[in-house]
Amino acid sequence: MGTWHKIIFGDCRDMKEIQDKTVHLVVTSPPYFNAPFDYPDLFVSYSAFLGTIRDVAKELRRVLAPGRIACFVTQDVRINGKLYPVVADLIRIMMEEGFTYRDKIIWRKPEGYIRISRRSGVLLQHPYPMYFYPDNLYEEIIILQNGEYKYPKIEVEQQNSKINIKEFDQGKWYLSVWDITNVLPRSGRLEEGIAAFPEEIPKRLIKLFTFVGETILDPFLGSGTTTKVAKELRRNSIGYEIDLELKPVILQKIGYSPHPLTDDIIEIKEREDAQKLRSALQQKVKNKNYTKNNKNQTTKQPHSHTSAHKANP
């Protein structure tokens, strides 16, 4: 049996293409506010970012079937030394819009890879109290539920959705900490310049919270990972992505062809509210790095009397 997949390029604050209560699982990772390595100056303010999250929460409450799950891969973000409580605010907003806070999974990345500068190095330079800044190697998977779920009697046709207990046990899915290697920022990879999560995360969530043939939604589709995994696991999917520049990346990742060799149906729609963002964001990242590097070179001039004791990780 084939599956169907809809990819809509447009603003996910309006999911008019989805009927009420027809989605069975949400797996997504919203922009991390204005994270300097991914989304510099994407939102005019933190309150504007939270306004977007609330608008999306209202739509998710409408389209998600009763009792079903919404999963957010996210993390607090530090910008210019200020830490923004993205996780706490997302949970608060979702609860205010009617969701139940069900669980939290810690996604722990390998210790050998830390994407941003090693903040703990400040203490190595200044081994005294108050110079401690830990390196971050985790993100959070927030699990929320849309009301009470009525557990059905398992019929014969649902046996193919049975969870593999060996896989569940060996992968330690039963823990609240998942050790999963992140998508490494190698030059030339398909997702270069995109904050993509590894396929293992949606694979686990889709198997744990849906039956074969049900529908997965990702309102912040990014490079298309959720759609790809849903397709492989014989689930249907809907994805929203506002950035039209990601279209070739998404189509390549999901194996789109105008002449498919399978029964899977893929529908692509471009709305008028779609934008082109990726190139501008990447240029801002380069500009910020260039400015930072120049600043660092300036501060390293010999015989400088500038204080070296003020840490700003």
In a few lines, what is going on in this structure?
The chain has eight helices and eleven strands.
Could you please describe the fold and organization of this structure?
- The N and C termini lie far apart (53 Å).
- By secondary structure, this protein is α/β, with parallel strands linked by helices.
- It has helices at 46-63, 86-96, 121-125, 165-170, 200-209, 225-232, 247-253, 278-299, and strands at 4-9, 23-28, 64-74, 77-79, 82-84, 100-108, 138-145, 177-179, 215-218, 236-241, 265-270.
- The strands form 2 sheets. A 9-stranded mixed beta sheet has the order 8-6-7-3-2-9-10-1-11, sandwiched between helices. Strands 4-5 form a two-stranded antiparallel ribbon.
- The chain is 28% helix and 21% strand.
- Helix 1 (46-63) crosses helix 2.
- It has a single domain, classed as Rossmann fold.
- A hairpin with a 2-residue loop joins strand 4 (77-79) and strand 5 (82-84).
- The relative contact order is 0.20.
- Residues 296-313 have low confidence and may be disordered.
